[in-house]
From TrEMBL:
Location(s), subcellular: Cell inner membrane
Transmembrane parts of this sequence: 7-34, 54-72, 135-159, 171-194, 243-262, 274-296, 316-333, 361-388, 400-423
Name the UniProt record assigns to this protein: TRAP transporter large permease protein
Membrane topology: Multi-pass membrane protein
Function of the molecule: Part of the tripartite ATP-independent periplasmic (TRAP) transport system.
Pfam families: DctM (PF06808)
């Protein structure tokens, strides 16, 4: 049992609200300093630096920068207008726009917390002004924000690809169907709730075909960015890492020369936000890699895999057990960090059971993102509640119907592999 002490320490540190990266490093170092004296400390220190000596990791700062460039370039406003022209006339129109905007933005920002924060500041004030309850608006914003990381180029798609050794291209393509399913499920539930409560649409009548086409033309440069990235990788024009740099360039060109809202003076702020975002993500990855080194030495992933296989050799039952574990962990640990910790633990059992790693990756990412809006510690829940000054109890009452819709999508993706792998099987 001694070998499991660092895991116990890790969860104690989590419960004490110690930052994820520090918790991982402290738990790992407790093993190397006190429980295993055979590994030189210098070798452990080398692991800190070698953890980030990876060319694919360069994609992370590029895609973080994409989200920052997008916020200054006018892309979000053009997508908002386009979303409003499509669904703004429906019952609960602004809430529907909230979901549609997250779906459009996902292909560009790929960050749930960034999407939740942006919509809390831009869209929710308009929703409350038009009679939507603030807690309901917060719940819709948090729930719809989890769509963003599932659509390429979501950072979690890249990180999972690196952890599991699967094609980034396949993971990118696999993200579209689950994201659209989540968007549709939320739109249906929002329509039902809005009709019961009498929430009005954002526009009195549907936009004309000409008006929709005009908004579509204005939003086209932004909408084409993710498709350009996917096609470029599909035809071998650039690698996933280079795709990040291409995405930054495309967003900058759109902002500078098409929307003309991006200014040279914005770039210091963009660089600052990119460095801060990259630093926090990479620091967590370093901590996770060192913690993973300890687990590998103690063969903990293999032991857990063996335990899961002994419980069941049924693929669907194994995925169901993993889903329960992920949902619980996702409530307490930030999504990216949870994925980094759990993927190496669970992957051997998944591969042994004959589960496709891309299918597993989609289930993991959707599951952990749902955890991000689930009480008691969902990160997107805290983001919207802190910005909008909404009480957690009020948020929890409003978010449960939306969570049920998202969980229904998760179950479909879990039990029907062909749904999750439809596009990868079709296009690769």
């Amino acid at each position: 049992m001694e070998s499991y002490i660092p895991i116990f320490i890790l969860f104690v540190l989590f419960l004490l609200n110690i930052p994820i990266a520090f918790s991982l490093i402290a738990a790992a170092m407790s093993y190397f300093l006190f429980l295993n004296n055979t590994i030189p400390v210098t070798l452990v220190m080398q692991k800190f630096t070698s953890s980030v000596e990876s060319f694919p990791l360069l994609a992370i700062p590029f895609f973080i920068m994409v989200g920052s460039v997008m916020n200054y370039s006018g892309i979000s406003r053009s997508l908002l207008s386009f979303a409003d022209s499509i669904v703004g006339h429906k019952t609960g129109g602004l809430a529907q726009v909230n979901v549609a905007l997250s779906t459009f933005m996902g292909g560009i920002s790929g960050s749930a917390n960034a999407d939740a924060a942006m919509q809390s500041k831009i869209l929710v004030p308009e929703m409350t002004q038009r009679g939507y309850g603030k807690a309901f608006s917060a719940a819709v914003t948090a729930a719809s924000s989890i769509i963003s990381p599932v659509i390429p180029p979501g950072i979690n798609l890249i990180i999972f690809s690196l952890l599991a050794g699967v094609s980034v291209h396949k993971m990118f393509i696999a993200g579209y169907v689950p994201a659209l399913m989540m968007a549709v499920s939320l739109i249906i539930v929002i329509a039902i709730i809005s009709k019961r409560r009498g929430y009005k649409p954002s526009r009195e009548k549907p936009a004309s075909a000409g008006e929709r086409f005009q908004h579509f033309l204005k939003a086209t440069p932004a909408l084409l960015i993710p498709f350009g990235i996917i096609l470029g990788m599909r035809f071998g024009l650039f690698t996933p890492t280079e795709a990040g740099a291409i995405a930054v360039l495309l967003c900058a060109v759109v902002g500078l020369f098409i929307y003309k809202e991006l200014k040279i003076t914005h770039f210091p702020a963009i660089l600052k936000e990119t460095i801060q975002g990259t630093g926090s993500v990479i620091f967590i990855i370093i901590g996770a890699m060192v913690f993973g080194y300890y687990m590998t030495l103690e063969q903990i992933p293999q032991n857990i895999a063996s335990a899961l296989i002994e419980l069941t050799d049924n693929k669907l039952l194994l995925l169901l057990l993993i889903n329960v574990l992920l949902l619980v962990v996702g409530m307490f640990i930030e999504g990216g960090a949870a994925m980094i910790i759990l993927t190496p633990l669970l992957l051997p059992a998944v591969l042994n059971a004959g589960i496709d790693p891309v299918h597993f990756g989609i289930v993991v990412i959707v599951n952990i993102m749902i955890g991000g809006v689930t009480p008691p510690f969902g990160s997107m829940m805290f983001t919207v509640c802190s910005i909008l000054k909404v009480r957690l109890t009020d948020f929890m009452k409003e978010v449960y119907p939306l969570l049920l819709a998202l969980l229904a999508v998760l179950m479909i993706l879990t039990f029907f592999e062909d749904v999750a792998l439809f596009l990868p099987n079709l296009l690769t």
